[in-house]
Known about the structure:
Layout: E1 16-17, E2 27-31, E3 53-57, H1 83-100, E4 107-112, H2 114-125, E5 132-136, H3 148-154, E6 157-163, H4 171-184, E7 186-192, H5 201-220
Parallel strand pairs: 2-3, 2-4, 4-5, 5-6, 6-7
Antiparallel strand pairs: 1-3
Amino acid sequence: MxxxxxxxxxxxxxxxxxxxxxAGMPLLVLLHGYGADERDLFGxxxxxxxxxxxxxxxxxxxxxxxxxxxxxxxxxGLEGRSSASVTAAAEAFLRWxxxxxxxxxxxxxxxxxxxxxxxLQAMRLAPETVDTVxxxxxxxxSGELPxxxxxxxxxxxxxxxxxxxxxxxxxxRVAHTAQWLPAHSELSGRVYxxxxxxxxxxxxxxxHAFLTKWLSREAKS
Length: 221
């Protein structure tokens, strides 16, 4: 079993919110990529469905100088992208979420790159809290977690979007994700021809449709 550090914490004061009046609203949390910060994905808010509170969270670490922004886990060195580091980041995020989502009827996560890996790991750690994830240009961390078997029955909803020209995520991690997600989730998604390690307008349209279905399911539950 992976040992998780309790020292990693999310600075909630840095979180950007789309609205101050969010009690009772479904919550969509944005998790940025390596070297970005809480301001990065917040610019996607106009492309997201109405009727949802959006929170954009700042990752807990600073990457090595001179890289700007923040990171969820290290990608350098022998331990770079280690599953234990992804788990530690996801545990820290879930501690933040426990407090931030106290009055929220439903939670979905949207992560890019590192943020996508952390979002998927959070789903694996707390499927009773997170059952809908948008993973853009990211991957599922290797190894097994205690709830993985239950996910084959729960089938959380996952959208996985990536580009054919993405040279950032190692091929082995993409291959692992392509095998893991269909077995452990209700998977939808798309591979975008010519897209690099980025987000396209076509992808945002697909994300909007996916999240609209999430809101529809929650309204009926």
